[in-house]
């Protein structure tokens, strides 16, 4: 099934879209709230969740009047600040409570801004409940695309990643069978041009200094290793029904072309814009309409020349590992993702080196017995085993 509306015409919504924002205190969540703030007549915030940032949750609930809120981390279920929630607001706690927000009757669209594998249950629940799903949680598609994609009704699964939003926009009105290749753009991260010898000594602080995008810590480290781009290759494979090797990574340092689609006749369509995540977030909320810009506009006459280059998979081996996981499929992408999440966190905490992230992922992939994806419960088990294996490898590489 295609994720695009298979029959035009485009129809406008009646009344504001009622949204649940899962992970409202993170980078994507706060920028989603900014879009909602800019379009109060078009968006109604119905539900909000955080992991543990209860102060941010209360502030957002009081500003937007959300009727339902959830705190995932039970350790923060009794934070004193929660007493400041507006009267009548329903508060629930625990991971299952976050997932339940995705199924509420008074929610039209779920914005899944949760980080990592943990977001898969909410995304699955939203699609099962027939909600529109605007998702920034790429790990859910990477790990569970075989489960989620069959649930995606046309026009109801809307990517928030800038690259996949760009591809989606380029493909509206086109036939999937006419696609020859997808050009997935990549900034190259903060270490573009470095050698492996140089990468062996970089710090987490250096890796967190992304040249063009403001993102959360986990995804910023993934961008530095190019694992983020590898995850996006697998994501594009699932979303747009293209072979992994038909998704070509293109280094574009200026981050103004957000991705391109090449068709069988040699024509290439590209989506351009500012390096501002509010643009793809707004497109997901407004689809099939377009609303007035929240992100800044670009003066193209004043822009520097564009450059393009090949991604260096020999130096940044995480990209090559992700491609291999995508080719093999099954449960291997889930194991790869789990190992990466563990190693990524270890690097941020200063307990392993930058290149150890790649080493850990490679070792866990070698140890994984690949199975066909059959259920969320199975993926939970694969994720847990891979995390344990990654922790064991880290104990070996730590000084």
TrEMBL record:
Mn(2+) binds at residues 161, 163, 232. It holds the Pfam family DXPR_C. Residues 19-145 form the 1-deoxy-D-xylulose 5-phosphate reductoisomerase N-terminal domain. Gene3D superfamilies: 1.10.1740.10, NAD(P)-binding Rossmann-like Domain. Its cofactor is Mg(2+); Mn(2+). NCBIfam families: Dxr (TIGR00243). PANTHER family: 1-DEOXY-D-XYLULOSE 5-PHOSPHATE REDUCTOISOMERASE (PTHR30525), 1-DEOXY-D-XYLULOSE 5-PHOSPHATE REDUCTOISOMERASE, CHLOROPLASTIC (PTHR30525:SF0). This is 1-deoxy-D-xylulose 5-phosphate reductoisomerase. The gene is dxr.
């Amino acid at each position: 099934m295609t994720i695009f509306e298979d029959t035009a015409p485009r129809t406008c919504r009646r009344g504001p879209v009622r949204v649940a924002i899962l992970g409202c205190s993170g980078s994507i969540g706060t920028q989603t709230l900014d879009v909602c703030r800019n379009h109060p007549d078009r968006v109604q915030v119905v539900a909000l969740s955080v992991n543990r940032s209860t102060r941010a949750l209360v502030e957002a609930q009081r500003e937007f009047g959300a009727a339902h809120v959830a705190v995932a981390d039970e350790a923060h279920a009794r934070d004193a600040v929660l007493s400041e929630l507006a009267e009548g607001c329903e508060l629930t706690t625990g991971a299952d409570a976050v997932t339940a927000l995705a199924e509420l009757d008074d929610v039209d669209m779920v914005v899944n801004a949760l980080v990592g594998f943990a977001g898969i249950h909410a995304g699955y629940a939203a699609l099962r409940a027939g909600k529109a799903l605007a998702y920034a949680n790429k790990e859910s598609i990477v790990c569970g695309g075989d489960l989620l994609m069959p649930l995606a009704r046309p026009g109801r699964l809307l990517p928030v990643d800038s690259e996949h939003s760009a591809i989606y926009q380029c493909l509206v009105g086109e036939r999937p069978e006419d696609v020859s290749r997808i050009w997935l753009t990549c900034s190259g991260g903060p270490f573009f041009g470095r050698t492996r010898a140089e990468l062996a000594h970089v710090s987490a602080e250096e890796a967190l200094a992304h040249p063009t995008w403001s993102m959360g810590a986990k995804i910023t480290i993934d961008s530095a290793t190019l694992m983020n781009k590898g995850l996006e290759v697998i994501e594009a494979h699932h979303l747009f029904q293209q072979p992994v090797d038909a998704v070509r990574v293109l280094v574009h340092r200026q981050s103004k072309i957000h991705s391109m689609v090449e068709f069988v006749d040699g024509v290439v369509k590209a989506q351009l814009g500012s390096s501002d995540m509010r643009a793809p977030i707004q497109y997901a909320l407004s689809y099939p309409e377009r609303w007035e810009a929240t992100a800044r506009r670009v003066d193209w006459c004043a822009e520097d020349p564009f450059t393009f280059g090949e991604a260096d998979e020999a130096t940044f081996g995480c990209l090559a590992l992700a491609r291999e996981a995508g080719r093999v499929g099954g449960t291997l992408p889930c194991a790869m993702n789990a190992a990466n999440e563990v190693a990524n966190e270890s690097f941020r905490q200063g307990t392993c080196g930058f290149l150890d992230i790649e080493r850990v992922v490679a070792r866990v992939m070698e140890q994984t017995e690949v199975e066909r994806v059959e259920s969320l419960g199975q993926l939970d088990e694969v994720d847990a085993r891979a995390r344990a294996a990654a922790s064991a490898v880290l104990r070996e590489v730590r000084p």
